Amino acid sequence: MNKIALVTDSTSDLKDDEIKRYNVHVLPLKILYKDREYTDRVDITPEEVYSNMAVEVPTTSLPSLNDIDQLFMKLKKEGYTHIIAVTISSGLSGTYNSVKLVSKNYPEIKFEIFDSRALTLGAGAIILECGEMLRLGKSFEEIVTQLPKFRDKISVYYVLDTLKYLMKGGRIGKVSGNIGKLLNVKPIISINKEGVYYTYKKVRGRKRSISKVFDIVKNTLEEKKGKVWVLHGGAQEEAQELYEKILQLPNLIKLEFGDISPVAGVHTGPGLIGVTIMTD
User: Fold this and answer.
1) CATH numbers and ranges of domains, the chain
2) For the segment 146-176, what is each residue's pLDDT rounded down to a tens digit?
3) pTM over 0.85
């Protein structure tokens, strides 16, 4: 009998109760300072990252090959025959390639390593859909067939207080690092089909940019039903206001609120407000 495991990485921003409900196995990324190392979402919070940024901006690293191997070995011992892994975009991190590499050591397990071409709940939403299909008794093949369809229904938009941390971490993608310096432009950033950041819209002023993010959600839900996640990085009050506004919209199947992982916070800096939308 087939036994299917769900695997993702810590940037998927799943909540503890969701991880428990669907028995998701999470590979944590690492946060590296000159003299110490932390495990994402385990022994450091986003607030600790932000509060120390004036002193030192850390770097980040993927789950180690050993960590991935240890997880797959554990799943093998527990009798899993199939593994579905959904990772952060390969255009933003090497996690996908590392998971794929280690999976080759386990030919007795059937793998589907899926590139979300997104991050945060863009990947997390796919895992949640997989978990729900598993709960309903769907087969490995049935779930795998749906993965590209889930991905095509998801979009991510966010606003940053500054682009300097994205630039410093080399994650700027197709977003111009200079636009934020011009006339207080706060670009709305999204992720393209290749899984790379790009400027969705240039907006002057933070309030207007957050308002435009709301308009994106509103316009989407006018056409289709959907699930929405509001996420923040060190901007809880503004994100809560956005959440309350979205709560009033029609065609809302689900609305969740949370914060981004500490690893993501390293690259965005404090002040992120974003939404993930998954249309029905």
Assistant:
1) 4-28+63-152 (3.40.50.10170), 154-279 (3.30.1180.10)
2) 999 999 999 999 999 888 887 775 555 556 6
3) yes
